[in-house]
Design a protein that fits this description.
Two copies of one chain form a homodimer. By secondary structure, chain A is an alpha+beta fold. In chain A, about 30% of the residues lie in helices and about 20% in strands. The first copy, chain A, contains 14 helices and 16 strands. Chain A has an eight-stranded mixed β-sheet with strand order 6-10-11-16-15-14-13-12, sandwiched between helices. In chain A, strands 1-2-3-5-4 form a five-stranded mixed barrel. A three-stranded antiparallel β-sheet of chain A has the order 7-9-8, with no helix packed on it. In chain A, strand 4 and strand 5 form a beta hairpin. Chain A is globular, with a radius of gyration of 27 Å. The first copy, chain A, starts with 5 loop residues before the first helix and ends in a 20-residue tail after the last helix. The relative contact order of chain A is 0.11. At the A-B interface, strand 1, helix 4, strand 6, strand 7 and strand 8 of A face strand 1, helix 4, strand 6, strand 7 and strand 8 of B. Strand 8 of chain A pairs antiparallel with strand 8 of chain B, so a sheet runs across the interface.
């Protein structure tokens, strides 16, 4: 059969052979040059048709979007822009694409328009490049952890535990929604529900991952997580994928080392394996930013930016130091921040994080030792009794990309915290068990996968780096 | 620091050095020999304590389950059962484990008992071996597809599409469950819900994966899927992980080739990378089956069984041939089957599948070309107008492990099928678009990941191969 992918043909190991290739028409110029693509690479193979040899009705079907099988001889290309091309002997049309109705014509479409066509947008160069990069990043994540002795744990998606406290949750139920069974007290009788209790979609696999770290040592999750928050921003999704490593015997410093090494490793992987897609996306960003004022353009082209992150040490700064910097910085004094920082203990907003990363340090920053009051119950209390061993990694243009901590391993301290926050201890019986039996220092972090893809592709809206985004009022497809 | 994992120490590259290791006590014999494990391997490192040199109160804390830091010199072992051991200089107890209350004592626990302790069961040899194998299989899946030019696609978990028809669904909602908003007609007003419509948890990523295959060529999903079916069997979960490759331009034969090659590749990966865990699980199964009558025992030990699958060609049999075999087989004639096969068109039950695989062919079997009536709407109709290009792979002891098909790529045929099944065409507008614009032959399959883990570990109940199983009345943790 000698059937090859476009990528294989372009590597030109098959010169002067008769080859078969399947793909979709990108363009058909001068009734002669078909640019064919099969998704294996961003590049097309040029297929040269001697139109006198073909039926006119066949040629009319060769429109953008049509699926073809092409048989021909692979030769050195005469023209510019490609090394090889196919001298076509046979064309079979698998399926046409009516130019009157096919939406993905070879012209510029807005990203907003393409979001409405999420089932077809991956046929554009931009989205095929993004989604190949996403796939590569996803593999790089698994490869990093596996080569470093971590075990992949599938933590549950449906959870009966609602003590995670990371955000609003989606309820999962099979009860009759109009006439749900009620208890004697008139509340919904969840004992009649599928799982015999109220259940929700997970907001984080961390607590369950901790149970596995305390047996297998080094583990990670990589699964979907959910937030039922009405956030219509370019950085939030209701359904997104999260990577959460958890390591027994690691303290916060080791946790920061792990996060930094991990991010650098996966970005190195795409620099080495996605060169062509990166070049395309870099150019796309440059083109897009041409219409923007200088101040809003990226400091560096995409590839340089990724290399900068890989080559430079992340700046580690305590929350207290960060507050000092922010308190005395110009935008704070001139009241240009929406939220003015005046006291230690303030929660940092996106504007503050961006100032630190983009203006002050001009590199990725790891903030650590946050006030206990603004962080989750499971983070380890420091000796000062007011800060916890938390850390966030802030990236230029993205803001928070990682949030992590050393976990509170002391049963008494954890119980006190749970009590103070009015969480029902019974809900967390299994989590507390980890502190009763063979407890030890451990730590981990969560990285929102889509924010990583956003950074690596140079895209501006998180809806454009996941195949079928779920946001308020939107669950099409 | 010279801190190493148990696995690193056992590879004995560090002989005669002072080393540090963290882990949990498996056993402590004769006040002298600590078997320490950190999850990096099923094997323990023996740590030899000269008890005269240590405080009695410290020694008392060295109980099964306690977390320790051990510093000492790695030496050749004098005793049997290990090559190296640590001559202990220092012991630090991270956290004790009261033998009166810690449930995971060094004795045999039933699998049922351990299911109630899903947060601790991974501390046993059996479950740590299973979960390391699960992690390895998961990585093998990604590696197989990535090396073969597939792109990983994250299809949505929350879906507004309810036309997949693969089973009962879980509703996802943020509406007030007690007083949901109603429309003028008195039905639930889902336009007020988070996504502005009724949404459910996905039962399959296939339809969305098809949209990506028709642009990127070769794609796969690997994500959680859900069935709200009240099936309390050893082979069903309400939440499970599914692998679904989808390939443009592949017909059913190519699809069968892919599935067979894939399964053999991932099993080869665990044979090569999980030797110690496999040996342990093989012995566990042999021990378990000792108490069973000969007829119920496995034909082969675990590792031999995996090698058998890797080394033998799967038998490909059409549904029609299978019906002929079943019609004339002994258990059918003697009415030993619960469901007697007498007519072409009958749906095959687990008992029939097991007969074909375990008694008749004695090897993995691929059944293909099923009656259209018993298969899903999207499968390609054959020339005979009564069968479809479907295939199921049946495994000994597991039954159906793969279900796949060539997809109906002809718009008119697909529309007719949708109409006949009374599915609302509007629900599938985007799926039909794939047949309007550049349609082509394509095919794919779904493989239930837990069934693969079940097969590879030799376990008997699917609840024991996923960290936190979700089944009717059970969503603890």
């Amino acid at each position: 059969m000698n059937t090859y992918s476009v990528k294989e043909l372009l590597s030109s190991d098959h010169l002067h052979k008769e080859v078969t290739v399947n793909g979709w028409v990108k363009t058909f110029r001068s009734n002669r040059f078909i640019a064919l693509n099969d998704g294996s690479t961003i590049n097309n193979i040029q297929c040269v048709v001697n139109f006198e040899d073909f039926d006119e009705n066949l040629l009319k079907q060769i429109n953008t979007g049509a699926a073809l099988k092409i048989v021909g001889t692979l030769t050195e290309s005469q023209g510019k822009g490609q090394n090889v091309e196919i001298q076509v002997k046979e064309v079979i049309v698998h399926g046409g694409a009516d130019p009157e109705t096919y939406p993905i014509q070879p012209k510029k479409h807005s990203l907003e328009f393409l979001r409405e066509k999420a089932h077809l947008r991956v046929r554009t160069n931009t989205f095929s490049a993004i989604m190949r990069m996403r796939s590569a990043l996803s593999f790089a994540v698994h490869q990093y952890f596996q080569k470093n002795g971590f075990y992949h744990v599938h933590t549950p998606i449906i959870t009966g535990s609602d003590a995670e406290g990371a955000g609003e949750m989606f309820r999962v139920s099979t009860l009759d929604s109009k006439n749900p069974p009620l208890t004697a007290e008139g509340t919904i009788d969840y004992s009649e529900d599928f799982f015999g209790k109220e259940t929700n979609l997970t907001v984080s696999g961390q607590l369950e991952a901790e149970t596995y770290a305390m047996a297998l040592g080094k583990v990670y999750t990589f699964g979907p997580t959910f937030r039922a928050e009405n956030s219509n921003t370019s950085r939030h999704l209701a359904e997104f994928w999260m990577i959460e490593p958890e390591v027994a015997f690691n303290d916060l410093d080791a946790n920061m080392d792990l996060a930094e090494d991990f991010i650098k490793d996966v970005l190195t992987y795409v620099l080495e394996n996605c060169e062509e897609d990166l070049k395309f996306l870099e150019q796309r960003l440059l083109d897009e930013e041409k219409s923007k004022p200088q101040a809003e353009r990226s400091d560096m082209p995409l590839i340089e930016k990724l290399k900068f992150v890989v080559d430079n040490t992340f700046k580690r700064v305590s929350y207290t130091e960060a507050i000092d910097i922010l308190r005395s910085c110009k935008p704070n004094k001139k009241k240009q921040f929406k939220y003015i920082i005046d006291e230690w203990g303030a929660d940092l907003q996106s504007e503050h994080e961006r100032y630190l990363v983009e203006k002050h340090f001009k590199c990725p920053v790891i903030l650590f030792d946050y006030p206990a009051k603004i962080k989750a119950f499971y983070m380890r209390l420091n000796e000062d009794q007011k800060t916890v061993r938390a850390m966030d990694i802030l990236f230029p243009g993205i803001g928070e990309i990682v949030g992590g901590s050393q976990r509170e391993e002391r049963l008494d301290v954890l119980k006190e915290k749970i009590k103070a926050l009015d969480i029902d201890e019974k809900e967390l019986w299994w989590y507390l068990d980890l502190r009763k039996f063979g407890t030890a220092t451990h730590s981990g972090f969560g990285l929102g996968f889509e924010r990583l893809v956003l950074f690596a592709t140079g895209m501006g809206n998180i809806r454009d780096v996941i195949p079928f985004p779920r946001t308020p009022q939107n669950a099409e497809f």
